[in-house]
Amino acid sequence: MGNVKKAALSLLLVSVFLGACSEEVEEEAREAKDSTEDKAENHEYLQSFEGNLGHVHGLGHMEEGFAFAAHTGIKIFQEGQWKEAVYHPHDYMGFQVREDGFLSSGHPIPSSALQNPLGLQRGKVSEESLEALAFDGESDFHVMGAGFANESVYVFNEQPNSQLDQGFYRSTDLGATWESILAEGIEGGVFQMAVHPTDGETVAVATDSGVFLSENGGQSFERISESGQAGGLYFNEDELFYGLYTGEATMTSYLIGESGTSDVPLPDLKEDAVMYFAEADNRMAIYTFNGAAYVSEDGGENWKKIVEKGETVS
């Protein structure tokens, strides 16, 4: 009988101990979650930055500000100040901002456990982890476009991998499956791609011969610009913005479905042109081929230089 009581007491003590441990684990999980949320709310995942951006391979606008995919990670121009995303020091290429974060390819820093090249990855500047969507360890997509609020991703695959040959491909499910697209009508060397924020069938391509637009999922393209080196592709719901260099730099707003165009004012770019462009609520940012960056708060009427020859400007 005494042994039975001892056994019951032992079970009770174990139950109490396990219950206490469980509550402790749950409390630690809650504290960790609260800490992560506090850091995100207070933007503690960003720290001050000044210096050289190195190569830039993408530009977009997110909640934190204008995000530049630089050689040494994501740099953000936020309310007149330069910041860097502490969780993302990698050399991102094909960088695309989405409503839930960003998509990118590129190369991880040497100390990272990530496979090189990155293939197609999804992430958030406020979180350290990346989600490998396709071809990690296989491909580096320099030319990639993705919809802000749809799951379409377009790539120009330069080197064959385990699934794709060289050429144009698209995925309508964030990289789970891929299909080859004809891309008829494109002329010149492919430089850049952009996808409409909500209509995944509408995609633009910039080449050294101009800007080409498709509204049938990339099967066929129509030239919508003069001949010249194109760049700065950026869609909002109603417009496609594009830059062109024909001896001088221009920036154009093309009305989708109406084919109407209007000029976007630029800063004085001498022997330079727009490489990347982003826009949000009449605020604009550009990065140029010669490594300068500017921001405007009034639709391009006035510009402030924030990068000169790759170096941040205070």
Automatic annotation (TrEMBL):
<dbReference type="InterPro" id="IPR054817">
    <property type="entry name" value="Glycosyl_F510_1955-like"/>
</dbReference>
<dbReference type="InterPro" id="IPR015943">
    <property type="entry name" value="WD40/YVTN_repeat-like_dom_sf"/>
</dbReference>
<dbReference type="InterPro" id="IPR002860">
    <property type="entry name" value="BNR_rpt"/>
</dbReference>
<dbReference type="Pfam" id="PF02012">
    <property type="entry name" value="BNR"/>
</dbReference>
<protein>
    <recommendedName>
        <fullName>Sortilin N-terminal domain-containing protein</fullName>
    </recommendedName>
</protein>
<feature type="signal peptide">
    <location>
        <begin position="1"/>
        <end position="22"/>
    </location>
</feature>
<keyword id="KW-0732">Signal</keyword>
